[in-house]
Write a structure and sequence with these properties.
By secondary structure, this protein is mainly α. Helices cover 68% and strands 0% of the residues. The chain contains 10 helices and no strands. Helix 6 crosses helix 8. The N and C termini lie far apart (64 Å).
Length: 189
């Protein structure tokens, strides 16, 4: 019996996601339909609907899965670097984006917030807020403007990189992003 979370269900889920990713490499997201996914995966529509309500849900679940994959790729024993946006975390992050660029090309096309929401709180509390306070900024409203400015720039830089086929190496883009960090955060106080 193929019930949710048994091996057969998980295998089918993986097959549907793999098919969807393959289609993203050859088709625009807007042209992908449940019918096309089912035909390529050689499954019935009822099988698809046993897993997802529509293609937006498969996209959302894939993003959650890829975010988890990314978070698990980071070493747990790396000490916190006091730089505003340490260089080392960018490399696995950018490698992950490049590896799944067809997926992120779609995701970043409509993205208006930070590409990985799970990192928001720690980036705010461990980096942005302390750097702003060290620069004499005490208003959280003002701090948030700096943070939003950084988020928007970072997201658009990623989108440009993915749209251009990830031509720059991960190290080159990490250096560019670091050079774009707001000057207020780079002050030595």
């Amino acid at each position: 019996m193929n019930i949710r979370n048994n091996q057969r269900f998980r295998d089918m889920d993986k097959k549907l996601k793999t098919t969807f990713l393959d289609l993203l490499n050859t088709m625009e997201f807007e042209k992908i339909t449940v019918k096309i996914i089912c035909e390529k995966a050689q499954v019935n529509r009822s099988t698809f609907y046993a897993h997802y309500s529509d293609i937006y849900e498969i996209m959302e679940q894939m993003e959650e899965h890829l975010n988890q994959e990314l978070l698990e790729s980071y070493p747990t024993d790396t000490p916190y670097d006091n730089d505003i946006f340490p260089f080392w975390p960018l490399i696995p992050f950018l490698h992950h984006i490049k590896k799944h660029r067809s997926f992120y090309k779609i995701v970043l096309k409509h993205r208006r917030n930070f590409p990985l929401e799970q990192g928001f709180d720690s980036l705010w509390n461990q980096t942005v807020k302390p750097k702003c306070e060290a620069a004499g900024i005490t208003s959280e409203t003002e701090m948030m403007y700096y943070f939003v400015y950084f988020q928007a720039g970072f997201t658009i830089a990623l989108r440009r990189w993915v749209d251009n086929g990830c031509k720059e190496t991960e190290e080159e883009l990490a250096r560019i992003i670091q050079n774009c960090i707001p000057a207020i955060w780079n002050r030595d106080n």
